[in-house]
Amino acid sequence: MVVPDISSGQLTVTQRLLEMAQARADHRALVGSCPAWTYSYGGLAATVQAAAAGLASRGLQPRDVVGIYAPDAACYALAAYAIRAAGAVPSPISAALTVAEIAGQLADCGARMMLTGPPLAAAAQAAADRSWVRQVISFGDAAGATTFDALLGIGQVLPVKARPHDLALLPYSRKPDGTLEAIPITHHDLADQLRMLDAEAGIGARDVVLATPPAGDGRTYSALLDHALTRGATIVAVRPDEIAAAASTHQGTLAILPGGYRASTPDQLRVFAVAS
């Protein structure tokens, strides 16, 4: 399959996902940590478009930046695609950051909204209170937050069109002096990353990818999830200590793990270590 190159007028990654969903509507796309966050490709596409409509109804505008402080891979994917479908820019927040650092990232990127979920929601709300964020949306109940389900039911929107050099992702990386700096990634950059993964990672529609919670600054993690879903694979959200059991239960073929993870993994799994 050819990775979309929007520099030549082809589809963005979000548009490609929705196109994929038409062909694989009944196939599993995401298996979340609870049954409510498990989706076929058809269900994922419908939810992404409905959530994008809900975000827009709450004031989200194209090119706005939205923080993502997600507890697992399924929530991360849902949040990132809904934000992109609304024309906005996801800014992944590393689990290694303190509340003060999260607030600093949110303030620096000008985010007025963030998506999170238990057990991270309390820290997310504390960071929001110290930044410009005015709306916290949670996958699951959390004090002071709107539930993700509240975004749904307004209707659906088609993904907002993007130009090659529009931002697709805004991760923050730690500099040698310990401070954080933005690493802007455009749609053109993302297409290049996925083209490289298409050649090197070789994830296909028969693969079941066991993905641990977001790791690093979000660059590699986001690209791997995008690559897997646009190739028609199934992503199963797991904790690192669940890898062996999940590999058996879900017939896993690959695992996305945080860099430096030392525990053994089943022999049948190809492993992608995420350092950035």
List descriptors:
single chain, 276 residues, alpha/beta, Rossmann fold, 6-stranded mixed beta sheet, 8 helices, 20% strand, disordered N terminus
CATH architecture: 3-Layer(aba) Sandwich
Q: Please give the share of residues in helix.
A: 25-40%
* Spatial order of the strands forming the largest sheet: 2-1-13-12-14-15
The residue-averaged pLDDT reads 92
Rg over CA atoms, rounded to whole Å, is 17 Å
The CATH H-level superfamily is ANL, N-terminal domain
The ordered string of helix (H) and strand (E) elements is HEEHEHEHEHEEEEEEHEHEHEE
How far the N terminus sits from the C terminus, by CA atoms, comes to: 26 Å
Query: In the residues, how many domains can be counted?
Result: 1
User: Spans with pLDDT under 50 lasting ≥5 residues?
Assistant: 1-9
Main sheet characteristics: 6 strands, mixed
Blueprint of the fold:
Blueprint: H1 13-23, E1 28-31, E2 39-40, H2 41-57, E3 65-69, H3 73-85, E4 89-92, H4 99-109, E5 113-116, H5 121-129, E6 135-138, E7 146-147, E8 167-169, E9 172-174, E10 180-182, E11 185-186, H6 187-200, E12 208-211, H7 219-230, E13 234-237, H8 243-250, E14 254-258, E15 270-274
Parallel strand pairs: 1-13, 3-4, 3-5, 5-6, 6-7, 12-13, 12-14, 14-15
Antiparallel strand pairs: 1-2, 8-11, 9-10
Outline the structure in words:
- By secondary structure, the chain is of the alpha/beta class.
- It has helices spanning 13-23, 41-57, 73-85, 99-109, 121-129, 187-200, 219-230, 243-250, and strands at 28-31, 39-40, 65-69, 89-92, 113-116, 135-138, 146-147, 167-169, 172-174, 180-182, 185-186, 208-211, 234-237, 254-258, 270-274.
- It contains 8 helices and 15 strands.
- Helix 1 (13-23) crosses helix 2 (41-57) and helix 2 packs across helix 3.
- The chain starts with 12 loop residues before the first helix and ends with a strand.
- The relative contact order is 0.15.
- The model is unreliable at 1-9 (pLDDT under 50).
